[in-house]
């Protein structure tokens, strides 16, 4: 299955993705500046185990973000911690290929995934949390229609410093833009 946008498409992660740039993104200090990755070496073997663990998972839908022109795998996006009872999921994104930063592709991928979550998975709520210093993710959450919901004080330690996590969420309604 794939979700197709104007400039990118989302497809399932493949085992063969470990042979591309994907594992190196999680070792790139700039790519991982605001997330929980990058503190320890991420290997191809770890990426392979991760891909196998999410394939066919009912609680995690992970997609590769691919550039339509080149078919290059440039990032990952997911709905994780999917809870059938609460009809909710956590949104996460990593645009790993820095050559594609600043082009609006995270917005395009995010919109595709939010629509998939509400329209295909029939979720009621999608949420995310981000490091207080991660302004691009905060802007993305707002662009996707999420509202600021709260702050978890000093909930993340990165490079020896504690950061607050800012929480955002969106609830499906009949007036939601498609």
Description:
With 178 residues, this protein is of the alpha+beta class. The protein has one domain: 3-Layer(aba) Sandwich (Aminopeptidase), CATH 3.40.630. Helices cover 22% and strands 36% of the residues. The protein has an 8-stranded mixed sheet with strand order 1-2-3-4-5-6-8-7, with helices on one face. A hairpin with a 4-residue loop joins strand 4 and strand 5. The longest helix has 15 residues, at 105-119. The chain is globular and about 40 Å long.
Mean residue pLDDT: 93
What share of residues are in beta strands? Answer: 35-45%
Number of strands: 8
Helix-strand string: EEHHEEEHEHEE
Briefly note the structural class of the backbone. alpha+beta
Distance between the termini: 20 Å
Classified by CATH, the class is: Alpha Beta
Q: What are the low-pLDDT stretches, counting only 5+ consecutive residues below 50? A: 174-178
Main sheet specs: 8 strands, mixed
Biggest sheet strand order reads: 1-2-3-4-5-6-8-7
Apparent shape:
globular
Can you identify the CATH superfamily? Answer: Gcn5-related N-acetyltransferase (GNAT)
Count of DSSP H/I helices: 4
**Could you name the CATH topology?**
Aminopeptidase
How large is the radius of gyration? 16 Å
Number of domains: 1
The percent range for helix content is 10-25%
Give me the secondary-structure topology.
Layout: E1 2-4, E2 8-12, H1 22-25, H2 44-54, E3 60-67, E4 73-83, E5 88-94, H3 105-119, E6 125-131, H4 135-143, E7 147-158, E8 161-171
Parallel strand pairs: 5-6
Antiparallel strand pairs: 1-2, 2-3, 3-4, 4-5, 6-8, 7-8
